[in-house]
Design brief:
Blueprint lengths: L2 E7 L5 E7 L2 E8 L9 H13 L1 E6 L16 H15 L4 E6 L1 H12 L4 E7 L5 H4 L5 H10 L1 E6 L2 E7 H9 L13 E6 L7 H10 L5 E6 L9 H15 L1
Parallel strand pairs: 3-4, 3-5, 5-6, 6-9, 9-10
Antiparallel strand pairs: 1-2, 2-4, 7-8
Helix pairs in contact: 2-3
Length: 246
């Protein structure tokens, strides 16, 4: 099946970009990471798998990300959670499998708790719940900038510095889910790199242990990094998604 695309209008006038493959359910829904977009290698690998196997698949960009409208600096966990729920409500029917990468693992968990009756399973790649509190190290000069301006330009190994707002940090605390219990009963598969510099494997394991679900498989890829986008990593991701869809 070919992939279609469009924009989902939000009540405040912003628009979320999406792409969809029609096919058999459950619908696989991709939830990307912080400052990532739906054109990344993992999202693309799943699109190709969906087309080849006749599976329903939806990917989208959050507010302020990728092809969607909005100012990234104004984004919050509340807003991105609402984006995910809007996609579920308006672009999917029936059961869904949520596939969340990094921050997307947090958003997927929050969405699963909001609509548990629709969740077939979750597949999480280097999940980063509570990252605004537990994983984001802010140096003294960052705290000074946040206090003075409400925003800190955080250096990045992946490109230009990017804005971290005080509102993002304050809002993130509202949605903390660790150490649990995390009220998700559906099957969960977690893929985690042992050499991930952004999400320590112990953090992802804490999520696995906090889940109420008894059907949880935690896979440590010892030499894996944060992105887990090597060919063998993409094969593991597709295999995990195919397993929970079966």
């Amino acid at each position: 099946m070919s992939e279609t695309s469009g924009f989902l209008s939000r009540p405040d006038g912003e628009r979320l970009a999406w792409r969809r493959v029609e096919g058999a359910g459950p619908t696989v829904v991709w939830l990307g990471g912080f400052r990532s977009d739906m054109a990344g290698s993992k999202a693309q690998a799943l699109a190709e798998w969906a087309q080849a196997s006749g599976r329903a698949y939806v990917r989208f960009d959050y507010f302020g990300h990728g092809e969607s409208s909005g100012d990234f600096a104004q984004g919050t966990i509340t807003r991105w959670r609402e984006d995910a729920l809007a996609v579920l409500d308006e672009l999917t029917t029936g059961e869904v499998v949520l596939v969340g990468s990094s921050m997307g693992g947090w958003i997927a968990s929050l969405a699963a708790m909001a609509q548990p009756e629709r969740i077939r399973a979750l597949v999480l790649v280097a999940p980063a719940p509570d990252f605004t509190e537990k994983l984001m190290e802010i140096p003294p000069e960052g705290h000074v900038a946040l206090k003075a301006d409400g925003v800190w330009m955080r250096p990045s190994e992946y490109g230009e510095p990017y804005p971290i707002s005080q509102s993002l940090l304050d809002d993130g605390a509202r949605w903390s889910i660790l150490p649990g219990p995390v009220a998700i009963e559906a099957p969960v598969r977690i893929l985690q790199g042992g050499e991930d510099p952004d999400v320590p494997w112990t953090h992802a394991l804490e999520l696995a242990q906090g889940l109420k679900s008894r059907d949880v498989v935690f896979s440590l890829i010892k030499d894996g990094d944060h992105r887990l986008s090597r060919p063998q990593d993409l094969q593991r991701l597709v295999a995990a998604v195919a397993e929970v869809c079966a």
